[in-house]
Design a protein that fits this description.
By secondary structure, the chain is of the alpha/beta class. The protein has one domain. It is about 40% helix and about 15% strand. The chain contains 4 helices and 3 strands. The chain has a 3-stranded parallel beta sheet. Helix 2 packs parallel to helix 3. The protein is globular, with a radius of gyration of 13 Å. The termini are far apart.
Length: about 100
């Protein structure tokens, strides 16, 4: 395992170039951290045009073993309630990391 890995910001990548699936297939093996937020408003993941459930499936197929983090502006009251709805996605696509 390399000592240095890249960070991949899917929000900015979608805004600038799109084609996230192909970018993940090309670059995810070199990444140690993938950052997510909805597009276009940069709100909670899952509230915009990007299907993160599908992309997490791509990461599972690739054997991605790095971190996934969020950097977003809350759409309403500051809350992490959306993360509860992400739990089944994490369990499904990354079962070794799930807690259920």
């Amino acid at each position: 395992m390399p000592q240095l890995r890249m960070q991949m910001d899917l929000y900015h990548m979608q805004i600038m170039e799109g084609d996230l699936t192909m970018k993940l297939r090309k670059y995810a093996p070199h990444c140690g951290h993938i950052q997510v937020a909805s597009v276009p408003e940069r709100h909670e993941p899952g509230s915009g045009e990007v299907d993160y459930g599908y992309l997490f499936g791509v990461l599972e197929q690739l054997g991605y073993d790095g971190w996934i983090g969020c950097e977003y502006r809350p759409a309403g009251r500051r809350s992490t309630a959306w993360a509860g709805s992400a739990r089944p996605c994490v369990d499904l696509y990354f079962p070794a990391r799930g807690t259920s």
